[in-house]
Amino acid sequence: MADITINGLTFEPHITRDEIDAQVQRVASEIARDCTTPNPLLLCVLNGAFIFAADLIRALNMPRAEITFIRFKSYEGTSSTGTVKEIMGLNQSIEGREIIIVEDIVDTGITSLQLRKMLLEQKPASVKMATLLFKPESLKQGTPPEYVGFSIPSKFIIGYGLDLDEAVRGLPEIYILKENN
Ligand code: IMP
Ligand code: MG
């Protein structure tokens, strides 16, 4: 894996495909072990989590697991704007359901806190969060995610669903912003 430059910023390889696959499998096993109903509802937070969610639901090995989608936006360029905009909401009842929020990354925790509050108003049986990546040093609000693929330093990353101004979501591996940009 070589460095890549996009929009004038250089990124270096950080997490390989094999490492991602192994952690997706581990997180899926933990979720399946903890589920108390046969049909948990995965709630994929678009756009970033779509690739993780696709791999996670296949790794879960629970034929009755369901998936639905919601869309938020909080980032512009390489930093959080501090406010979260809901762009596409939930269109089904979640009352009494076991909900697993699927996120690409938890950074400040603002999105996660707002989402949990919104979901709890609709009386689900439980709400937990699975995130591929977690920046523990950036967490400002809310509780840490229940399931974490990788804890990473508080630097900007791209690939495997994560974007830089909507580009590079299709990179199969994860890259991190280099120090000397
Ligand atoms: P939070 O609300 O600050 O926890 O961040 C939530 C959203 O910001 C994530 O779901 C991502 O879409 C985006 N985000 C946070 N950190 C990064 C990053 O390093 N690269 C790309 N997107 C990020
Ligand atoms: Mg996101």
Descriptors:
3 helices, binds inosinic acid, 4-stranded antiparallel β-sheet, globular, binds magnesium ion, alpha/beta, 10 strands, 181 residues
Describe the 3D structure.
By secondary structure, the chain is of the alpha/beta class. It has helices at 17-34, 50-60, 110-120, and strands at 4-6, 9-15, 41-46, 66-76, 79-88, 98-106, 126-134, 147-151, 157-158, 174-177. Strands 5-4-3-6-7-8 form a six-stranded mixed sheet, sandwiched between helices. It has a four-stranded antiparallel sheet with strand order 1-2-10-9. Inosinic acid (IMP) binds next to strand 4, strand 6, helix 3 and strand 9.
Task: Please report the number of helical segments.
Answer: 3
Low-confidence stretches: none
Radius of gyration: 16 Å
Sequence of secondary-structure elements: EEHEHEEEHEEEE
**In terms of structural class, how would the helical and strand content be classed?**
alpha/beta
Mean pLDDT across all amino acids:
93
Cα shape:
globular
- Total strand count, please? 10
Question: How far apart lie the N and C ends?
Answer: 19 Å
Q: Which hetero ligands occur in this complex?
A: inosinic acid, magnesium ion
The largest sheet has its strands arranged as 5-4-3-6-7-8
Largest beta sheet, briefly? 6 strands, mixed
Percent helix among the residues? 10-25%
Strand content: 35-45%
Question: What would you call the quaternary organization?
Answer: single chain
